[in-house]
Design a protein that fits this description.
Number of strands: 2
Distance between the termini: 24 Å
Order of helices and strands: HHEEHHHHHHHHHHHHHHHHHH
Oligomer: single chain
Number of helices: 20
Helix content: over 70%
Structural class: mainly alpha
Shape: globular
């Protein structure tokens, strides 16, 4: 089983090379990309079943002695996130393929898009299965290079400008992360996550706190946690619809994943939970207030993305096994639902020629299918029962209530307010875009949103374009998956709860001196394992 682990990264890289060889042969490139992601999805499911019913799998690449080799580590959390990422990547790929066929690759040139897309996937998978901090850094850098190419496709002025902001912010985060890695190595003599967790107690508390905060700030920038989330609402909306969808669904979650590893394994005994709670509350409230103030659908969703990262930080701050398990469930929910909403907005943009809620109107009659594809994930993200958004938030609030401290009560109230305002922002957009009549220039609701006239990008207008069936099918498939998160919430929650227990139980960390874990390592038995 351990032989399958390196394939999660090597297959996308090999697929990218093959896709690049085929150049502008669209069908072959798409076929290679779909086949690669499908195989990785199957492998991820196999590994998820194996680790969920057994023990985590660790592989030292090249059989180098620990800690000198590259360590890849798959537990329930990493396998689950790789599988979910594959589902999202496949759906967005189909969406982009339909868009490319209709537009002649104007938005997503196939010769560039598909190889870069697979490299992006390799970076995501590598980050999720990294067993040491430097390999995690490599995963982030692969993401950075690929995402910059994707965010600046067509090289328009707005995309180059926002891409420059994105790359500068990401480089600042990377430099801080690299400095933290160097400091940790200098202090502990290793970058292996398991060894760091075992040796961290040897350092003075002040040194631990500095190292902890350096990693936390670096990962918070990547996760778009307030106050270092300023870059996201301006960066994502300018990219092509498929790129925006995959960025919104996955890239910030890689940062959240790194924060989970940091808080549960590297610094399990450190006390920064109060700081995390304050940051979580600020992220939720500031993000959702930003969404309410927007008149452009992509910007509304970008701000709700920031606010819902706050829920994940909230769960991490609670720090109980149940709360961590619920947080993992909420991450899965948000990856799927947020991606689906951005795909639906991509359909709205093609049908109406705009994503401004001040300009789009009459879509209920003109495009009832798009209305459904937007409405279901919107109320899900807003937290209406019985959908997965409600299930995740209710379970999170219940875990906080079990702790019962005053700050937990404040965060529960903040979470409820954020959920209601999210629902308001998304349903206001629904009301204006779908229910306003096409020929009504002065609809009654217009006076109520006059303050949005000065909102950023409210006047952007493009030509209306045909919507290929494959784009509707990809979005519809994702909507079905969002419903599946509700229908199968019980089994999924059981898996995520086991992930929470794994993350908060030191015996399950890689390299712990137990025979069950050692048997999964590709190193000789005589190698001394600390």
């Amino acid at each position: 089983m351990s032989a399958l682990v390196p394939l999660l990264v090597t297959l996308p890289l090999l697929g990218a090379a093959i896709a690049l060889i085929f150049g502008r042969r669209r069908v072959l490139q798409i076929a290679v990309t779909i086949a690669t992601l499908t195989v990785v999805l199957v492998l991820a499911i196999i590994l998820l079943i194996a680790v969920d019913t057994g023990t985590p799998i660790a592989v030292s690449v090249g059989a180098w002695p620990i800690p000198f080799g590259i360590l890849l580590y798959v537990d329930t959390l990493s396998a689950l996130l790789v599988a979910v990422s594959c589902v999202v990547l496949l759906a967005v790929l189909l969406f982009s393929a339909g868009q490319g066929m209709a537009d002649g690759d104007a938005e997503t040139p196939v010769s560039i898009f598909n190889p870069t897309y697979l490299i992006l996937a390799a970076g995501i998978f590598n980050a999720f299965i990294a067993g040491d901090l430097f390999n995690l850094f490599v995963g982030f850098e692969i993401l950075l290079v690929a995402s910059y190419v994707l965010i600046t496709l067509r090289s328009t002025e707005s995309r180059i400008r926002t891409g420059a902001v994105y790359i500068v912010v990401s480089l600042v985060s990377s430099v801080l992360f690299l400095a933290a890695i160097a400091a940790i190595y200098g202090a502990l003599g290793t970058v292996n996550i398991a060894q760091i967790s075992q040796r961290m107690a040897e350092l003075p508390q002040e040194v631990q706190l500095v190292l902890h905060l350096m990693l936390l700030v670096a990962f918070s920038i990547k996760a778009a946690v307030f106050p270092v989330s300023f870059w996201l609402p301006d960066s994502y909306p300018t990219a092509p619809a498929p790129v925006t969808a995959v960025f919104a669904g996955l890239l910030t979650k890689v940062g959240v994943y790194a924060i989970i590893r940091t808080e549960t394994q590297l610094f399990a005994d450190s006390e920064v939970n109060m700081l995390l709670m304050v940051i979580a509350l600020a992220t939720m409230i500031v993000g959702v207030l930003g969404a309410v103030a927007q008149a452009e659908l992509k910007r509304i969703l970008s701000f709700t993305l920031v606010s819902h990262v706050g829920y994940m930080i909230f769960g991490i701050a609670i720090a109980t096994p149940v709360a961590i398990g619920v947080t993992v469930y909420y991450i899965v929910h948000h990856i799927i639902v947020q991606t689906t909403l951005f795909l639906a907005v991509g359909l709205i943009e093609r049908r109406a020629g705009s994503t401004s809620i001040l300009k789009v109107k009459g879509l209920m009659k003109a495009a009832p299918m798009i209305a459904v594809l937007y409405f279901i994930p919107a109320i899900n993200l807003g937290g209406l029962p019985p959908f997965s958004g409600f299930i995740g938030k209710f379970a999170l609030f219940d875990a906080a209530a079990e702790v019962g401290t005053p700050i937990m009560m404040v965060l529960i109230v903040g979470g409820i307010v954020t959920s209601l305002l999210t629902l308001y922002a998304l349903m206001r957009a629904w009301n204006l875009a779908f229910w306003r009549e096409e020929d009504d220039e002065h609809a009654p609701l217009d006076a109520q949103i006059a303050y949005l006239d000065a909102a950023p990008a409210s006047g952007v207008q493009t030509k209306r374009r045909v919507i290929p069936r494959i784009m509707n099918a990809a979005t519809g498939g994702m909507v079905i998956v969002t419903i599946g998160l509700t229908v199968f919430a019980g089994p999924l929650l059981e898996i995520t709860m086991r992930a929470g227990i794994e993350l908060t139980t030191p015996v399950n960390i890689v390299l712990v001196d137990t025979g069950a874990v050692l048997d999964t390592l590709d190193v000789p038995d005589e190698v001394e394992v600390p």
